[in-house]
UniProtKB/TrEMBL annotation:
SUPFAM superfamilies: Dihydrofolate reductase-like. Pathway: Cofactor biosynthesis; riboflavin biosynthesis. This is Bacterial bifunctional deaminase-reductase C-terminal domain-containing protein. Gene3D superfamilies: Dihydrofolate Reductase, subunit A (3.40.430.10). The keyword Heme does not apply. The keyword NADP applies. It holds the Pfam family RibD_C. Keywords: NADP, Oxidoreductase. It comes from Microbacterium wangchenii.
Length: 194
């Protein structure tokens, strides 16, 4: 996750791209390389114009299948669309990505993060990186399914409509690592205490 000093998850262009740096992108690549799958919400795919990661699979959490604005292209081999079981046909049709695999989760529209992690593990993808956006990442944090938080803090003061991680309650963590680069970016690794 990336944030400005004021807690904004997006910069002046409405995306995280205006907050990031070359070092931050390099660290993101390292984190993704250690993952089996990158999980992201559909709203973030639309806002950020997501592309497929180079080394990990991409799983998009969606209730509607609306992925307008993505840059995934037609070659979506390995792409997973995670959705409520009752919406799987709608998601398949509306996504416009017939090559994507739909991973339907039993239950209602409000898919539980633990159910997402369990389904991915059963699919042979136990190492999950949740890139957000803020709403999905906060749901994962509140559910207690995150082992480690990697947070980049850009040395910028941007308007923040809401925090970059709008959690509902305290999450007990300890610092596992911290770096500051020459440009003033801070890179935090926080481990969740159990």
């Amino acid at each position: 996750m990336i944030t400005s000093l004021t807690g904004a998850a997006a910069g002046s262009d409405g995306t995280s791209e205006s907050l990031t740096s070359r070092t931050d992108r390099a660290l993101l690549g390292i984190i993704r390389a250690a993952a089996d799958v990158v999980v992201v919400g559909a709203a973030t795919v639309r806002a950020e114009g997501y592309v497929l990661p180079r080394r990990a699979r991409l799983a998009i959490v969606t209730v509607s299948g609306d992925l307008d604005g993505h840059r995934l292209g037609d070659a979506v081999d390995g792409l997973l669309l995670i959705c409520p079981e009752t919406r799987s046909a709608e998601v398949r049709d509306r996504s416009g990505l017939p090559g994507a695999q739909v991973l339907a989760i039993p239950g209602g529209d409000d898919i539980e993060p633990a159910a997402i992690c369990d389904a991915l593990a059963a699919h042979g993808l136990p190492r999950v990186v949740c890139e957000g956006g803020p709403t999905l990442a906060a749901r994962f944090a509140d559910a207690g399914v995150i082992d480690e938080y990697c947070v980049s803090v850009t040395p910028a003061l941007d308007a923040a409509d809401r925090p970059f991680l709008p959690i509902a309650s305290h999450v007990d963590t300890e610092v596992a690592g911290m770096l500051v680069d020459e440009a003033g970016f801070s890179y935090l690794r926080l481990r969740a205490r159990r």
